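Exercise 4. Each item below gives a protein and its sequence. For each, produce the structure-token representation.

Item: Calcium-dependent secretion activator 2 isoform X2 (Austrofundulus limnaeus).
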Amino acid sequence: MTRRQQWKERERFQKEEEERKMNLQIYVFVLRCIAYPFNAKQPTDMTRRQQKVNKQQLQTVKERFLAFLNGETQIVADEAFCNAVRSYYESFLKSERASRMVQSGGCSANDFREVFKKNIERRVRSLPEIDGLSKETVLSSWIAKYDAIYRGEEDTRRPTQRAHMGSVSELILSKEQLYEMFQQILGVRKFEHQLLYNGCQLDNVDEQAAQIRRELDGRLQLAENIARERRYPKFISADMEVLYVEELRSSVNLLMANLESLPVSKGGPDFKQKLKRSSMNNSFLDLGDEGDILSKSDVVLSFTLEIVIVEVHGLKSLAPNQVVYCTMEVEGGEKLQTDQAEASRPQWETQGDFTTTHPLPSVKVKLFTERTGVLALEDKELGRVVLNPTTNSPKQAEFHRMVVPRNSPDTDLRIKLAVRMDKPPNMKHSGFLYASGQRLRKRWKKRYFVLVQVSQYTFAMCSYREKKAEPQELMQLEGYTVDYCDPQPGLQGGCVFFNAVKEGDLVIFACDDEQDRVLWVQAMYRATGQSYKPVPPQLNRTTNRKEGNPKPPTPISLNPSQRQGVEDLISATPSRFDHSTLFRVLQKKTLQHRMNDSFSCLGWFSPGQVFVLDEYCARYGVRGCHRHLSYLKDLMDYSEKSALVDPTLLHYSYAFCASHIHGNRPDGMGTVTVEEKEQFESIRSRLMTLLMNQITHFRYCFPFGRPDGALKATLSLLERVLMRDITTPVPSEEMKNLLQKCLEKAAQINYSQLLDYAQIKVDPEEAADKQLEDMLMLGELCIEVLQQNDEHHSEGREAFSWWSDLLADHAEAFLCLYRQNLDSALQVQPADSWNTFPLFQLLNNFLRTDPHLCNGPFHKHLQDVFVPLVVRYIDLMESSIAQSIHRGFEQETWQPVRSLTNNLASVPLPKVPNLSLTLPQMPSFSAPAWMGPLCENTLHGINLPDIFNGSATSEDLFWKLDALQMFVLDLNWPEPEFAKHLEQRLKLMASDMMEACVKRTKSAFDAKMQKASKSTEFRVPLSVCTMFNILMDAKKQCSKLCVLDCSQETDKQWQYHSRIDVLIDETFKEMISSLISKFAVVLDGVLSKLSRYDEGTFFSSILSFTVKAAAKYVEVPKPGMDLADTYITFVRQNQDILRDRISDELYIENLFEQWYSSSMKAVCVWLTDRLDLQLHTYQLKTLIKIVKKTYRDFRLQGVLDGTLNNRSYETIYNRLTVEEATAAVKAGGALQGLSMRDSDEEDI
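Answer:
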């Protein structure tokens, strides 16, 4: 390492040491503020902050919502909720702005929930009303399902773990929790805190009150010195110097009054500690204010002792054959005896097992010999030994000198035995130590200590006397910190030292062996659970030396053995410090700790932090303006680093500083220093830049409108910053112009960000289709951005009524940037290309619903661009449809096809083949799958159902006209005049096209009827049915395709439509009459055949004679039955054809009624012509069958009784009944059972 590097390293080390010294000094002042507050208290009315969402939690939430969308959860939901979740997942959870929210540290689970709630509120409002189910119920249900998805499978019933300091910082904290918090803030270690706590005597109420009095006296002396030496700060006015001294004196007097108002016995709010003793006897230690206090009865130890007696040496006073034995006992237990042995060989190897609760038991072993005398009551004791074993005693057998009776010759009597004392599991360490406590100043003496584990988390250091089961003294180790220490002067006994320290207590221990000390410190280190790990010091610093002194400790290093640094920190005079600088450091570190904790604080301190900072400012005279200026600077530092800071907090601090600078005395201070004014102007300029930047980047600084109300607060703060003083408001135009500039920049930033997000590079050389595709995707993103702006950032109108107008100008500027790319993409599109219509429809549907953007500059430009395209498109479509009608009817086969127009969707217009003109294609708007084959041919590849309508040409015409009108309707043209013009043109075009269709159909029908057969072989052709269906469809489509909306309908147009309607009705009547006439011709043919049998004709006589002659030799068919059956078959089959092939029931019934009436009338006329003639038997039989079957068939087809039983039928019925009676009288059974009377036995 070079000299330069060594110098830099040394300089860095010195700087760290100075910073650490300053932090420790600040911590001393903070300790006193917490220990004895008399100015401030923890606020209880602060807003509770929510837990932050971190990156890992965001990823987990994404996975949970994706699992729900993939159907991997058990949550049941309808399609509407799934769509809402999908939109939330795509637009929010996956967005970059949500990731930025999480990264900024200002995002909580509540923010996620509120964004979803705002999204679904808009969706639910758009849903139709459902009887019995309110929209509030739907919202509640959806929110409950959202919560279930967000939580996932987390078990909310699991037991809560011990709360970390970060998770309880929103609560009212105890003093111990405040100590722990500021240890973390200032980087103070636990044992350093304990030494400072004890050194400051924070548990001594009188000492703390005296310290405050000394501080206040020091501040008064400082004020006097300033006045005497005229060492004033530089003020903006020289008149403030005298006022400054008065303010110093007033602040001290106020503090004195606050101190005097406290009760003497209490010393401060919640200050007095409740001390709990471990026993009634005073001991060298005290338990302090621990939550769970141990008593002596809680400490229970159980030991197992094994005593093995091996042999005795030095037994000379007895004869060799005399019997000896040993007894053994543990104090307070039973006595055991060995076997007997001869005095010449006293060996046993006998083991005795004992249990005891005494850590220092007393073991007695005695040697006896038997007395053989008659009067001997007990055996003679030869010697004894008393031992006090411990768990650390040797386990192997050893010789012990026995105590013999007086005048015994066995002076060197020894016994070999082993005493093994097992250590119980809850005994962690034991041994003899010197000890002395701090509180009660017990004398320094040697005790036997046992480290006992009472429970999993509770340990106690207990001292015992001999033959006692309960500890004499007990020290619960929770809260203590153990470490090595240097020899203590004035303590005799012990070679090496260590101590245990906590707030309010210091216990010093000493032992005779270094290894024993290491074992004790390690055992106690494990028991206390302290974070600081003790490190054994060097040997030359840990032993009591009679000559020479150990190396003096570093003044600021707070190892427990180095007391000088602690004394320097504690004895420092507070009035000699620059508390403005110290407070700035304290507040900055506190804010850093707050911004890094687990709460979404947005820069707000926790109640405990506010309390300590308030107390510090009041106690040590930190000016309020300096406090808020420093706070503003720190908050802006975080805000400039993309951290979320509540603008309301900035507003509060800025307003305080502005009020102070302009002499409004918000804290009673009338003096303003030059430094304060300069800092305020600097911060004002910096804050102005920050706020303008935030408004320019409002989509990213306030994503999705979070934090709630932040944009409104930012606008209000900007207005406050623009004020020259605290009374003169900012002109509205000045504020509006400033915001307009910010939003113009915002439009450029948002659009460039959108291009980057969509990964679109505007290249004029790209293919036209690719450019159009990019513009369509970019248009969707632009609409989404503008909708989000309106949804999440419209709260600014609560601050300024004209904010909505500025936001509309911002949207126009944003769309103007899009317009440039849009125009360039449209210019490269080929002529007569209609693929751009979806783009117009997308943009127009959004713009026309926005009251600020509808018919705005961009919207008008869009209309100007697409007006020629729409007109050109309709011209070409009109020409192509006209040509398709002409060509289609020329080649028409009149084969029926299924209806396409009943459920017409918004689909592409099909191509019409074999036309010289290149037909334009309607753009596709989400065409259903079943419409796919229609894009090439309307007829081929379709499985036709059993329901038929018109021909290919007519269906194609109606479908094209409807599709064209639906397309223009879907354009939703915003300009009313042009929209009305388009509608009128399309309606008139449809009227002309349908008129041509009806006339061409009528011409084809007439031609078909002329070629039709006139016999009973005639069957209604399917083409004729198709023609009827064409007219029916034309009738239905006319009201939809040829009539304007009622609000726009004109008399001329209504007359035009009425003429078409009349044309269709007249054509329909003519076609029905023509068909009925054809049916009548067939009936006339049948009746003309029956006329041959008229009475008195020559042909009748020949036929009668021929039939009679032939009947003698062969079986002759019944005369007239073939003719009747043929006609009945003709009627029935044509009825079935008409019923099956014509789709309109009303027209079918009308046709059947006319057909029936016509048939009955024809038969009636025929019978009337033969009124004077008697019907031939064959005529009668044929007519009866024809009339009866016709009546029944038409009744089955639904013809009403009023029509069936008309006058013609009654006339026919009466005539045939009379003829039937006459024939029965003359010919007997000639009718062969035929009768006009109804009979169920007849075959219909």
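Check: Residues 54 and 102 are 6 Å apart (CA to CA).
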